[in-house]
Write a structure and sequence with these properties.
mainly alpha
Length: 212
């Protein structure tokens, strides 16, 4: 997808999530609010940043201090919006709702888009395992809580959302492990150095065959 088209799609997705029909439908359910609307808001920031030129992304990454501060900022922002108090505020307070629609793309999606290409296997594993652990712990708290922790949602909706979060955490961890083992078992592609050596050897053999 061209960068301009990607940026347009990100803007359209953000606008659709902010408009009342889709927004009301997603925020009416706790699991849809946390596991659909919020990740999609973060995705708009991710797509928008990936639509930038590579040189501009590298410049912003350098000014931000590298990939580690960006990943930590994304994890902190994401963990905040999993708190029950943050969910209630996003539904009852217009200022908190505006903050949600701004911080999730800017402080979660955009930093991950900048840092992701520079993260190695260990760094990406940290992101996936941290996300899975946050989902699992928060989901278990929602399931095990004897009372409602979110005033905006019923206890049954809270329990259902917690179960979805736990199962999603298991799926993320399982998918990451499978991808890790598949990537380790895949054959290594030829590096430029090895390709150059092979080409040089082929030319030498060709000269020997043609020599009188």
């Amino acid at each position: 997808m061209r960068p301009g088209a990607a940026a347009c799609w990100a803007a359209l997705l953000w606008l659709a999530l902010a408009l009342p029909p889709l927004r009301d439908a997603l925020e009416g359910s706790m699991r849809m609010h946390m596991l659909v609307q919020m990740p999609l808001l973060a995705a708009t920031g991710f797509i928008a940043v990936r639509a930038l030129a590579a040189t501009r992304r590298a410049r912003v990454l350098q000014l931000s201090g590298g990939s580690v501060p960006l990943v930590l900022a994304a994890m902190l922002a994401a963990s905040y919006w999993m708190l029950p108090r943050a969910l209630d505020a996003a539904l009852a307070d217009p200022a908190a709702a505006v903050a949600k629609f701004i911080t999730l793309p800017v402080l979660v999606g955009a930093p991950l888009a900048l840092a992701w290409p520079r993260l190695g296997t260990v760094g990406r594993g940290f992101v996936w395992t941290n996300l899975a652990s946050m989902l699992a712990v928060t989901g278990w708290l929602y399931v095990a809580a004897p009372v409602r922790v979110c005033n905006a949602y019923l206890a049954s909706d809270q329990y259902e959302a917690g179960m979805w979060m736990v199962w999603l955490a298991v799926a993320i961890l399982f998918g990451w492990l499978v991808g890790l083992f598949v990537g380790a078992a895949a054959p290594q592609s030829a590096t430029p150095e090895s390709t150059a050596v092979t080409s040089s050897a082929a030319r030498d053999r060709h000269r020997l065959v043609r020599a009188p």
